[in-house]
Write a structure and sequence with these properties.
By secondary structure, this protein is α+β, with helices and mostly antiparallel strands. About 35% of the residues lie in helices and about 15% in strands. A four-stranded mixed sheet has the order 1-5-2-6. About 20% of the residues are buried. The model has no long low-confidence stretch (mean pLDDT about 95).
């Protein structure tokens, strides 16, 4: 998984250095074998299942800046749980960020496969209710698309990481991905879906 992310980053031609932040010696070894560097080990307080991304990036930027002769102005956080990351998407993200000096972030998004305005919830009594009943009679094709974070990459200006702006702000721009290239992996079901999609995309020569 992490090798895919490293290779996509290498093939994009966007990076002076590819650094992996991890607390695992095994992951560090794999990362280095594929050409990434692991100049530090992430501390335990930033390596649990509930650690947000921004503190991890602040730590990585501080570590890199303190051990090199240059300061990071622009960087990119790539998640290792994004098996369909492409070099072209990374290049588009960098171009988007650099196209506007007011931006602090550009990151991958994709559309929901069905209008979220017609979302349902199951009540405590086991019944079904619309979250937004006013859309009950609206045709799905008449509703505007809505998007969610695709969980692949976040281009950033370092000042945005330390200014507490957050990824989801007026200083962020989207990089819209086709849904077929989006499969975040958190569960076994996600993994199985990714394997099926990967096989189909390879067959269609999209990967």
């Amino acid at each position: 998984m992490i090798a895919w992310a490293i290779t996509a980053a290498q093939d994009s031609g966007c990076f002076d250095e590819i650094v992996v932040s991890t607390d695992s010696e095994e992951i560090a070894s794999v990362a280095e074998s594929f050409g990434a560097s692991v100049p530090f080990i992430r501390p335990q307080h930033l390596a649990d299942d509930h650690t947000p991304t921004i503190p991890v990036l602040r730590h990585a930027i501080d570590e890199i800046n303190s051990t090199s002769n240059t300061e990071i102005a622009i960087g990119c956080c790539i998640y290792a749980t994004a098996p369909f990351l492409t070099p072209s998407a990374l290049r588009e993200g960098l171009e988007t960020l650099e196209s506007d000096d007011m931006l602090d972030f550009s990151f991958s998004v994709t559309s929901f496969p069905f209008p979220i305005q017609r979302a349902l919830e199951i009540t405590d009594s086991g019944r079904v209710e619309m979250i937004s009943p006013k859309y009950e009679l609206t045709r799905s094709q008449d509703l505007p698309e809505r998007y969610h974070d695709a969980g692949q990459f976040y281009w950033f200006r370092s000042k945005g990481i330390f200014n507490n702006n957050g990824f989801f702000s007026a200083k962020s721009a989207p990089v819209i991905l086709e849904r077929k290239f989006v499969q975040d992996i958190d569960t076994l079901e996600d993994w199985e879906a990714a394997e099926i999609a990967h096989a189909l995309l390879e067959k269609a020569h999209d990967l």
